[in-house]
Amino acid sequence: MSRLFLLALLPLILAESENEIGEIVLTPHGMGKDHTERVVLPVSNGHIPPLPCVLLNAGAHEHGQTFTKGNFHYMCNNGTAEVVACVAEDQSVIQLGRTFVKNGIRHKCNVNGDSVTYEQESMCFENGIHYNVGDSFRNGSFKLTCGKDGVAIEGCYLQNEATGILAPGESRIVGKYRHECEKVAEGKVRYTVKVVGCVKDDRVFNVGQVFTDKHIRYQCQLDGTLNVMGCVDEGGLFIELGKDLLVNGMVHRCYKIDRTTFFHKFACDSDRLDVCIANSIVPRFKRTVS
User: Fold this and answer.
1) What pTM does this model have?
2) Which residue from 18, 70, 60, 80 is spatially nearest to 43, judged by alpha carbons?
3) Average pLDDT for residues 251-274, to the nearest whole number?
């Protein structure tokens, strides 16, 4: 946020002759001769001494004296308070016509004709560089913009592209890769690049593709994850995940514990599956597809 202070370099006193025998009354600019902050100067033999500066709510200051009021530093020049510098809230001094940057704030002390303006404006500091409010710049994979409240993430740059940008929450498929600019929290964005499809043991599978690896049958999902469909024995018999089969005296089991899928096959003399399972040395797990 910027703030602007404007001061006209005008005389800040009112001088008038109280009488012809030697008295001058000085008051703050615009005030009458009876104002409580008036200063009365005697005049000797018609000689008028250098005049002090009288400012409203700032007292009187002798000719040549310097003083500070608000965001300006003055020097009294024969009754006229002239601005010689600007002063920030932390008492940093900015010379006339200069710009000063401190703690992410730009301070300006500009002279325009007979007036002096003091302006302070927020800036952003990133990787050793100051940016003005409204400036956009790149930091790694992210497009950032300097705002009044700090740096905001505007989007993600596509990998290996100079101009392609994704807005937060947007994804785009380029060739065999999906680029995602994911919003993970307020003010936080994550950029990821994933192969379109699924990857297992350095092999890439298309979305929807079904394949078998070490007796486990998978299907590639749209989000790149693998869905376990079930198990397959050496002869190609399919057992749905969480199911048990008794075929020709052989029990086939396909079950999942936590994130691991198991295929178990063993012989049984009974023609009842429940008896085979009960007598099995392999404990029976709750048959739940996760």
Assistant:
1) 0.45
2) 18
3) 87
In the three-class reduction of DSSP (H, G, I as helix; E, B as strand; rest coil), residue 189 is classed as strand
Instruction: Pick the closest to residue 150 from 131, 165, 166, 169 (CA basis).
Output: 131
Distance of alpha carbon 154 from alpha carbon 143, whole angstroms = 5
Token digits of residue 115: 């007036």
Which residues lie below 8 Å from residue 70, measured CB to CB, with a gap of 6+?
5, 87
pLDDT in tens, 195-247: 778 888 878 888 889 999 889 999 998 878 899 999 999 888 998 898 888 88
Length of the chain: 290
Quote the tokens at residue 22: 């030697």
CB 93 within 8 A of CB 87: yes
The rounded distance, in Å, linking the Cα atoms of 210 and 36 is: 95
- DSSP tag of 224: S
**Computed over its alpha carbons, how large is the radius of gyration of the chain?**
41
